[in-house]
Every structure is written in C-alpha cells, then in structure tokens.
C-alpha cells in the first residue's frame, strides 16, 4: 500500500505556502507506529487549519527544543550546586620551580615522619630495655637474698652437725660467734700485766721467759697453753674414772647393731661407758641403803666385795673403749647384751652372754684334736661364734663376768614386765 500524499487543489494554494516552505514529506511505513513519526508530519494536511500549519516552522521547533532543554537544566538545580561546589581542576601547566618545591616539601615531610617513627621506636626500645633491666635487677636481688638465706641455713646446719660431732666425741663445744669475733679493742682489754703473766706461767709449769721473747709473744704463748689445756679431755667423775664424756639418759639408748661410721662408733663407746657407770652407781647406792645388820653380815660383805671386784674388773674394758681398739668380735655381743638389757629382755641378754663367753664350740674347754685323722672341717672348730672369748685372756674373762653381774643386778633394779624374761 502506497503512503498517502497530501495534495493541493490546482485552483488555490494555502496563504502560508507563499511565505514559508512546506515541511518535508516523510514516507511512513504502514506498520510503523504513529509515535515514531515526525511530530511535524501531518497525515491529513486538509484536516489542519491554515494557521497551525503556517506556525510549524523550523524556528519554532528550535525555540521549543531550547526551552525544553532550559527547563530540564532548571529542574536539576541540586546537581548544578554540586558542580559548583566541586574543586576546580588543576592547572594544565606548572612551573618547574613549583614542581621542585613541592617535591622538596614532600621529601622533607617524609623525612620528618620517618624521624618521628624512629624516635618512637627508639623510645619504645629504651622503655623495654629499662623494664628488662629492672626485672633483671629484681631477679638478681631475689637470687642474692635466696643465696644468703641458703648460706645462713647451711652454716647453721654445719655448725649444728659439728656441735653434735664434738658432743659425741667428747670434745669441748664450739665457741660462740660473739666470742670469736672480737675487735682489737677487746684484745687490748684482755692484756695481762707482766707480773700476773709470769705467775700464771709458773702455775702451768712453763718457763716464764724464752730467748728473744717479748711481752706480746709471751702473752700469745700463754694463750696457746690455756687453749691446749682446755682442749684436753677431762676425766669424768664416777665409779670408774674415764676420759669418755658421759651422755644424758635420753641418749643412752644403744642400737642393736654396731654402726659402721667412725663418729657413730665413737659415740657408741661413750654410750657403753655411761651405761656401765650408771649401773655401777645404782648398784653402789642400793648396797648403801641396806640395814647395818645386813651390811655387816657375811652375805652383805660378800655382795659388797662382788660390787668392788666388778668395778675393778671393768677398768680394762674402759681403757679399751678409750683407746678405740676393742675387737668387733667382742664389741658386737657386748652391744647386743646391753641393748637387750635396756629393753628388759634379760633372758635374751643372758643368751648373748653365753654365746660370747663359751661360744658354740663342741668342746669349750679348748680341745683341738678330736681324732687321729686329718679332716677337712677341722678348721671350723675355732671360727665364728664357736670361739670361746672367755678363754682368750684373763682380763677378758674378768670383765665379761662383771657384765654378767651387772646384768643380774639390772634385773632386780629394773624388773621386766614379762615374767618369762627373768633369768633363773
């Protein structure tokens, strides 16, 4: 279908045609919607009024479009304010001096920032180092205090052990620290006059003056003599005088076996000496408490003589204890006898006495030849517990019999709770 064309009558023309050119004709496809057609297009030119077609010119259209664009720009007022507030673009061209000045300013700013960061790091590092040094100093102080306390505690333990050792050995006690730490003024105050010093040296049976010796040297010699005399072991009072220092009653409990340590063994000698002296003293007191008639009787005199004889026979044993040369073959059974007696087991103590006195030999009287033939087990007759120590020598026999007498008295003085432990 061909598009419709507008046409004019041949006898007359519209008045506007002579003034303005007619708008161009557009070929419109039949299927093209009307909305896509040009706004100035007239489908039916005859239906339009002459004045409407006359005013539809190019200038009107342009003014209309311009007014429409202005209206759109006025309606977008906030966007226009935003463009006004936006920063102006940088200059297109800049001087080299301005660029160099900006670069130098940025460099200095960067250097200052780096310097501030370095100073902050150094300050933090110094702070951490100070804190670490403070913690280290506190640890050192704490370690030093602990070391001092440990040293004091160790010194006290060593001093207590030394005092205990000297007490066991019967040596004089250690002087106190206040006595050992003396000032030179105290030493000068202890000075002795010449006449008194000579008199004291004479009392000690020492020469009053040596060749080339002045007063100070003489005073030092006198002090050494006094210390040496004080260090000498004193002879204790008792039924049997001895250099063995006595021990208190609470420390007189004797162990069941002989200790292996030398110090403990020396203390054991002191315990034995103290126990035997204690039993002899009790025996003497018990005999002194009897009536006069009993003491003057034959049996009373015989009991008293037995006590004196036992005390005299025990002296060789004390001398051996002082010299520390008692044989283990005798020391062990004696320790067992005293240990059982302190427990009031007198039957067991008597058995130990029989073992040490006559032993387990088949012939305690000393038979050595039991046949005419040599036998391999003959040497066992005189070894171990089969040896009769009571036949060793006269002194051994006497103090072993004295120990048996002390055991019999202890049974009467301290009777056992178990009646089966009473010797017959």
From TrEMBL:
<keyword id="KW-0507">mRNA processing</keyword>
<feature type="compositionally biased region" description="Basic and acidic residues">
    <location>
        <begin position="79"/>
        <end position="157"/>
    </location>
</feature>
<dbReference type="InterPro" id="IPR039979">
    <property type="entry name" value="PRPF18"/>
</dbReference>
<protein>
    <recommendedName>
        <fullName>Pre-mRNA-splicing factor 18</fullName>
    </recommendedName>
</protein>
<dbReference type="GO" id="GO:0046540">
    <property type="term" value="C:U4/U6 x U5 tri-snRNP complex"/>
</dbReference>
<dbReference type="InterPro" id="IPR004098">
    <property type="entry name" value="Prp18"/>
</dbReference>
<dbReference type="GO" id="GO:0005682">
    <property type="term" value="C:U5 snRNP"/>
</dbReference>
<feature type="compositionally biased region" description="Low complexity">
    <location>
        <begin position="69"/>
        <end position="78"/>
    </location>
</feature>
<feature type="domain" description="Pre-mRNA processing factor 4 (PRP4)-like">
    <location>
        <begin position="198"/>
        <end position="225"/>
    </location>
</feature>
<dbReference type="InterPro" id="IPR014906">
    <property type="entry name" value="PRP4-like"/>
</dbReference>
<keyword id="KW-0539">Nucleus</keyword>
<dbReference type="Pfam" id="PF08799">
    <property type="entry name" value="PRP4"/>
</dbReference>
<dbReference type="GO" id="GO:0071021">
    <property type="term" value="C:U2-type post-spliceosomal complex"/>
</dbReference>
<dbReference type="GO" id="GO:0000350">
    <property type="term" value="P:generation of catalytic spliceosome for second transesterification step"/>
</dbReference>
<feature type="region of interest" description="Disordered">
    <location>
        <begin position="68"/>
        <end position="198"/>
    </location>
</feature>
<comment type="similarity">
    <text>Belongs to the PRP18 family.</text>
</comment>
<feature type="compositionally biased region" description="Acidic residues">
    <location>
        <begin position="186"/>
        <end position="196"/>
    </location>
</feature>
<keyword id="KW-0747">Spliceosome</keyword>
<dbReference type="Pfam" id="PF02840">
    <property type="entry name" value="Prp18"/>
</dbReference>
<dbReference type="InterPro" id="IPR036285">
    <property type="entry name" value="PRP4-like_sf"/>
</dbReference>
<feature type="domain" description="Prp18">
    <location>
        <begin position="274"/>
        <end position="415"/>
    </location>
</feature>
<keyword id="KW-0508">mRNA splicing</keyword>
<feature type="compositionally biased region" description="Basic and acidic residues">
    <location>
        <begin position="176"/>
        <end position="185"/>
    </location>
</feature>
